[in-house]
Structures are given as C-alpha cells and as structure tokens.
Amino acid sequence: MILPRAKRRVGAPRLPIFPRHVQPPRRNLIPAPRQNSGPLLERRSDRELPSVNSNRRWWRTLPFFAVAVGAAMLGIFNYQKSSSSVVSSTLYALRTSPRAREILGEEIYFAHKMPWISGEMNQLHGRIDISFWVKGSKTQGKMRFRSIRPDRMSYVR
C-alpha cells in the first residue's frame, strides 16, 4: 500500500526543525535604557523591561483629587439648580411683586455672580424647598421658596 505524500503549499513558510538535544539559538537580552543614558536610537522587541518603581507617590495626591472632584460635583449640581425653570420663575415673580420691589428696590437679581442655591429641588416627587440671596437697588435679602405636592395627582401648594 502506498501512502500519499503530504503536499506543501507554495508560499507557506518553513519552520526550521531542530533536534531535541539542540536548543534553538537565543538572542541575548539587552538592558533597558537608564535615565540620562542618551537618546534611544534603536528599539528591540526582546529588550529587558524597565524596573517598576514601588513608591506610592500618587497616594499623596489622592486627597487633592477627591477634593477637586467633590468641588466640581457641587458646582455642577448648583449650576443645574440655578439654571432651572423653578429659580427663573421665582426670580420673575420676585421682580414683578410690588412688596418685593418696595423692600429690595428695582433691578432684582442674584446677589453674587455665582449664586449658591441651597435646599432641595425634587420636581419629580413634588418637593421644592430652596433659598438664595438676591439684591435690588436698595438692599439685599434671602429669598426662600417652598412648594409641596402631597400626592401624585394633586396640585402644588
């Protein structure tokens, strides 16, 4: 019986076959470049990896990062409150109120360039209790607005 020969595909790479007792040639690893050792002109894929610094300097910056993220969150949430329709409507109502114009004067607006809106503004559940500082041409004062909707289908009080 004749066994068919395995045909080699044209263009397929041939791998070198080494006997079991002979190791394939190895390239020696070169050390990683050190600091101030000059420009790296050649990069080899089999070079030694640089040593990992085990010092934890980033632990010192973690509190600063947490404070910065917290301050950014507070600023974003406050900006969301200050640009809401509830705040705009209360400012409009304050500007058109004769009693408020008598106390504060004309040109009623926020007391500061970046107003701080304190309190809860939960329009979904019908709970709004906010306060912020306003000023007019005469004086300034703290404006407080409170609105409660007892249940889903009732009107706001």
UniProtKB/TrEMBL annotation:
Signal peptide segment: none
Domain of life: Eukaryota
Sequence segments annotated as region (Disordered): 17-46
Pfam families in the record: Coa1
GO biological process: mitochondrial respiratory chain complex IV assembly
InterPro entries per the UniProt record, alphabetical: Coa1 (IPR014807), Coa1_fungi (IPR042432)
One of the record's GO cellular component terms: mitochondrial inner membrane
UniProt name for this protein: Cytochrome oxidase complex assembly protein
